[in-house]
Design brief:
alpha+beta; elongated
């Protein structure tokens, strides 16, 4: 009865009409986008015999798409339908192919899987649908296994195309038979294809319809023969093309490709497949050589054959680099000096020691096909050049301990003929230059690097060069004398040529402070935002090929490198447009922000000072032999220098008959210096004690105990001397002992003047002495910190680039841990020295000391190349520790050289980083 009392459901009549908008854009029913295509539906409701009209709208969501499909009168365009179905994919998760399968049958795609509860509608729905059809898939696969096989009465067995009666007829049109066919040698022809190794019957034309040789008949059918006379094996063009691209992209070896095809032929391993691996090696080598000649137009020269190819003719040139007569305007030579950088060539040098080659084969057995045609230099001329330097010993580095210099004479190891390869690249666009790659016999010897530099620039006629090299500060010394011996007509020796030598940004922190300014990209006019690390990017592309090339003969290896460098350059060229556009957009979008920031900074500087700095900068940029405005011109003190100065002052006082010492053994300055040294021993013992744990060995514990006992005896001696100069220190010790019984030696207060402060009275001279010593200690601690950060950056670089294997990496990590311990010790020393300086400044009345010695946070302890999170190279801010450079950054030899630079005197050969040839 209750149901009968309910109102009957009202009947509805519904019709719809589509009112398209200008442009379809994605939106939702709750938040439509302006201009979105809308499906408007008019609903006609019949109520009490009266029609009422109501409007409903669907925006670009699943409902609108389904409605558009259901209501045929909605005439949507193809683009609007595609966009709606894209929204279906985003809303319900079906992929486009799955949706199309329903549309083809005039069905709506299900929005949910009916067999799963609502809360589990996640993941790949197509995969869940597939799992329901696994048996069907499996049945079809098993059925297809019988194809290409013959039934032997028991099972299907694999058969060759030849046994099935297939014969390939050459020399005639498809479908024609030769009346007098000539069978292949032995009638046992093998074809290597992408899917398997086929044994086929093959006939040449013997009726005289064609006069072409057997090789030409094979090539016309896209079969590449293995031999010139009576070939029995060939590879299809598509197989060779597939392998060529696979190796370029994935560095797949020929052996791996052949094994793959062999397993496609018989994956059971029960039937023997004829071994054609040596044959495939030869085919691949010849194929890629022909491709290189074809792609560089060598097949269209009627006057010169392939063997007459000129040196470097098959190399692809970087189209964005300046090439006179090709992409430079007329009169480019006459531009002003301030615009000369627009037509400068940027090149970078480097060597890679992963690209070794084992001592296998020989030049006689494997001379190679390319005789300096592309990127690798011609071997005979290169060997003649090296013979002149057999007994030459490379000079040691006068900068940091660069392995590229100090290990230049190190041999590659037993069983290796080459230690790696060296290259010259376009550092702006990361392209290999012609005749710019050679083998390294030992390390990065100058004779190797000089040779490829000269050859890569032999046809260049530009007026300015920017040359980047990891060890440019060493390499460019006497460079022109060495180049003149190789080629007196080298463009680098031409009159009026300007050359800037630079160090790549990533390697720059490993150099001493003078090099960091003179060879920095960011401080060199015309260098722009280059980084000089182009070769490193190239090694990342090439290194996976090392496992293949190290087993090759000398000629095959050189040719393989040529082919890969050619493909590398080609991919760089076709992507160059997008790359340059992206860089231009980035530069133009950020230029306004940088200009405004620079103007705001200039506004805070006095005009006279700004003009002086600008004048110095312009003078140095035009003539780098002028004083470098970026170098620190103030020498900060070291502890050793201050102690020497204090000793000389005491000597002068004794000569004048004044002796303020209260002990025959210790003077006031010696006493304070002794206390500072004891502080260092306390920090060291504290660190060593923290390294102990519950399972430390007896030897470790004994070592800590012995050092602790020795420090305790030194502390007793210290306090006996201290009470001579500060008698009230006895009271301070007594108060301290009441607070803590039996403190550990590294916890004992030494009661230096900075720790006493105003607690008791003492001679202010002691506070002044400590202030001077602490000043030197703080500066020296920063110097040690910087130097070890520089060493750590170098160690990380060496580890990441060259070291492989557990043993080598373990040794590298141990070395890094040692350097990290020194960094931590320097950090603690600076913090303690700063704390003492601030206390003494209050006591002695010194002002603004906290501005000179800034607080050292953990985030400030980073190398020059490290940036704060979220900062890139152009927005990176140096930590303040690098803006307070002093002589403590270097060793005694480096300090001496640094002092000469500060005094404006010459020391060592010229390090200006620029060479200018005058007429």
């Amino acid at each position: 009865m209750g149901r009968q009392d309910k109102k009957k459901k009202k009947e509805k009549l519904k019709a719809s009409v589509h009112v398209p908008s200008a442009v379809f854009r994605q939106g939702s029913s709750t938040n439509p986008l302006p201009g979105a295509s809308t499906l408007k539906v008019k609903k006609l409701k019949l109520t009490d015999g009266v029609f009422k009209v109501s409007d409903s709208s669907f925006y670009s969501d699943v409902n609108a798409a389904i409605a558009a499909f259901t209501w045929k009168e909605a005439n949507l365009s193809d683009s609007q339908l595609d966009a709606m179905w894209d929204q279906v994919h985003q809303s319900s998760g079906w992929d486009q192919g799955y949706i199309d399968s329903f549309i083809a049958q005039d069905k709506l795609p299900p929005e949910n899987d009916p067999e799963l509860p609502e809360e589990k509608q996640k993941g790949d729905k197509a995969m869940r649908e597939w799992t329901k059809q696994v048996d069907d898939y499996l049945r079809v696969l098993i059925t297809l296994e019988g194809r290409g096989r013959c039934w032997n009465g028991t099972f299907f067995e694999r058969s060759s195309l030849k046994s099935l009666g297939l014969r390939i007829q050459l020399g005639h049109l498809a479908g024609e038979r030769c009346p007098l066919p000539s069978k292949a040698w032995g009638d046992d022809f093998i074809i290597i294809d992408c899917d398997q190794i086929h044994s086929v019957g093959l006939d040449y034309c013997g009726c005289g319809q064609t006069s072409k040789s057997q090789v030409e008949q094979l090539l016309e059918r896209r079969f590449y023969p293995a031999t010139v006379v009576n070939p029995k094996t060939a590879a299809t063009f598509r197989a060779l093309e597939l392998f060529e691209l696979l190796q370029y992209e994935s560095k797949l070896s020929t052996f791996e490709f052949y094994q793959t095809v062999s397993r496609l032929t018989d994956n059971t391993g029960l039937q023997g497949v004829k071994d054609r691996y040596p044959t495939l090696l030869r085919l691949v080598h010849q194929w890629r050589h022909l491709k290189m000649l074809k792609r560089t137009g060598r097949g269209h020269d009627p006057s010169r054959g392939a063997s007459e190819t000129l040196p470097g003719e098959c190399a692809l040139l970087c189209p964005a680099c300046p090439h006179p007569g090709i992409n430079l305007p007329e009169g480019w030579q006459n531009v002003g000096k301030d615009l000369r950088y627009l037509y400068a060539l940027n090149i970078a040098l480097d060597a890679c020691f992963r690209m070794k080659r084992k001592d296998c084969s020989s030049e006689e057995a494997d001379p190679g096909l390319s005789k300096g045609f592309a990127y690798v230099v011609e071997e005979a001329a290169f060997q003649n050049h090296l013979k002149k330097y057999n007994n030459e010993v490379e000079p040691k580095s006068t900068c940091s301990r660069h392995d590229a210099v100090n290990l230049a004479d190190m041999r590659p190891g037993q069983g290796y003929a080459s230690s790696g390869i060296a290259t010259v690249e376009c550092s702006r666009h990361n392209s290999k230059r012609p005749l710019a790659v050679c083998d390294t016999q030992k390390g990065e010897r100058y004779c190797n690097m000089d040779y490829i530099t000269v050859l890569s620039l032999q046809l260049c006629s530009l007026m300015m060069f920017l040359i980047s090299y990891d060890i440019a500060c060493q390499w460019f010394i006497h460079l022109f004398e060495r180049i003149a011996q190789i080629n007196p007509s080298c463009p680098l020796l031409a009159p009026g040529i300007e050359i800037r030598f630079l160090v790549p940004k990533f390697h720059l922190p490993a150099h001493i402070p003078t090099c960091r300014n003179r060879f920095a990209f960011m401080l060199t006019p015309g260098a722009g935002l280059g980084d000089g690390e182009a070769p490193e990017r190239g090694w990342g592309e090439l290194n996976p090929l090392a496992t293949s090339t190290r087993e090759m003969g000398p000629g095959t290896r050189r040719d393989t490198l040529d082919y890969h460098f050619g493909d590398y350059n080609w991919r760089k060229i076709i992507r160059l447009g997008n790359s340059l556009l992206r860089k231009m957009v980035t530069a133009t979008s950020d230029v306004a922000e940088h200009v405004i920031a620079h103007q705001e900074l200039e506004a805070t500087i006095e005009k006279e000072q700004l003009a002086h700095w600008l004048e110095a900068m312009v003078a140095w940029e035009s003539d780098p032999t002028s004083p470098n405005p970026y170098e620190v011109a103030v020498k900060t003190p070291t502890q050793t220098a201050i102690r020497r100065q204090l000793a000389e002052e005491e000597e002068q006082a004794l000569a004048a008959g004044v002796d303020v010492s209260l002990s025959d053994k210790v003077s006031p300055s010696s006493l304070v210096a002794m206390g500072i040294d004891l502080e260092g021993e306390q920090r060291s013992l504290k660190t060593l004690t923290k390294s102990l744990w519950d399972h430390s060995q007896d030897r470790q514990i004994t070592r800590v105990k012995l050092r602790s006992n020795a420090l305790t005896r030194k502390l007793e001696e210290w306090f006996n001397l201290l009470q001579l100069y500060i008698p009230t220190s006895v009271l301070l010790r007594k108060r301290e002992s009441q607070k803590k019984d039996n403190p550990k030696p590294f916890e004992v207060q030494l009661w230096l003047p900075s720790q006493i402060g105003g607690l008791v009275s003492f001679d202010p001279t002691l506070a002044e002495i400590e202030f001077r010593l602490r000043n030197g200690q703080a500066h020296e601690a920063l110097g040690v910190l910087r130097r070890n950060l520089q060493i750590r950056a170098t160690l990380y670089d060496v580890k990441n680039r060259w070291l492989r294997g557990q043993g080598a990496n373990t040794r590298a990590l141990n070395a890094i841990a040692t350097v990290q311990a020194r960094i931590a010790a320097a950090r603690d020393e600076y913090r303690q020295a700063r704390k003492a300086l601030l206390a003494l400044a209050t006591l002695l009345g010194h002002q603004n000391l906290d501005q000179e010695f800034l607080p050292l946070e953990d985030g400030d302890i980073r190398s020059m190349t490290e940036a704060e999170p979220g900062q890139g190279e152009t927005r990176r801010k140096l930590s303040w520790i690098w803006r307070r450079v002093n002589a403590a950054d270097a060793t005694e030899e480096e300090t001496q050289a640094f002092q000469f630079v500060l005094n404006g005197e010459s020391h060592e050969p010229d390090r200006s980083g620029i060479k200018k040839r005058s007429s």
